[in-house]
Every structure is written in structure tokens, then in C-alpha cells.
Amino acid sequence: MENLINMESLENLKENLDKALSEVPANYLLGAGAVAWLLSSGLKHAGKAKAASFVEALSVPVLSIGLYYKMTEISRKKEVLAD
After folding, report:
1. What is the DSSP string of 11-76?
2. Which residues contact 69 (CB under 8 A, 6 or more apart)?
3. pTM of the prediction?
4. What distance in Å separates the CA atoms of residue 55 and residue 46, rounded to the nearest whole number?
5. Most buried residue among 8, 43, 50, 77 by CB atoms closer than 10 A?
6. Per the domain annotation, does 38 fall within a domain?
7. Domain that holds residue 71
8. CA 30/CA 61 separation, integer angstroms
9. How many domains, the chain?
10. Domain contains 44
């Protein structure tokens, strides 16, 4: 079986992620992260600790990426208004 994780595929990982996520609005990413966080809270209260920790582990990166894109979006708007 071929090794799928090699240096060639990892070199392009950042560019591929940026390209794919640049088309998604920041508000969608923030909303998805918030929904995942609320879902994990509901799963914890329902007694599904393993599922809750999995969903919670996904919510943090999604919220971080959404926040990053929102901040860059705001800074771009400020630059345009300053010009």
C-alpha cells in the first residue's frame, strides 16, 4: 500500500486548505463552530462523553479559523476605507 502521508502532500496542505476555506464566508465558519460547541454541550448533558469530546475537539479549530478569517476581513475593509 502506498504511503499517503508524504512530504509532497504536506507541502501543499496549507495552500489547499486556504484555497478551499477562502470560498466559505467567515460567518458560516463561526456559526458552524458555535453549533458544534453547543452540540458537544448537549451531548455531555445526555451522558455521551466520548461523542461530546470528539465534537468539541472539532469545534475549537473551526471557531479559530472563522475568527481568523473574520479578523482579516475586517482589516481588509479598514484598509479599503483608509485609501
Report:
1. HTHHHHHHHHHTTS-HHHHHHHHHHHHHHHHHHHHTT-HHHHHHHHHHHHHHHHHHHHHHHHHHHH
2. 21, 26, 29
3. 0.72
4. 14
5. 43
6. yes
7. 25-82
8. 10
9. 1
10. yes
Please identify which residue in the block is written with the cell numbers 475549537: 60
Closest CA to 30 of 5, 65, 58: 65
Return the amino acid letter for 76.
R
Distance CA 53, CA 70 (A): 26
Longest dimension (CA), the chain: 55
Among residues 62, 78, 70, the alpha carbon closest in space to that of 26 is found at 70
For the stretch 20-24, contacts whose Cβ atoms lie closer than 8 Å and that sit 24 or more positions apart, written own/partner, are 21/65, 21/69
Which band of pLDDT confidence, cut at 50, 70 and 90, is reported for residue 11? confident
Residue type, 61: P
- Other C-beta atoms closer than 10 Å to the C-beta of 29 total 21
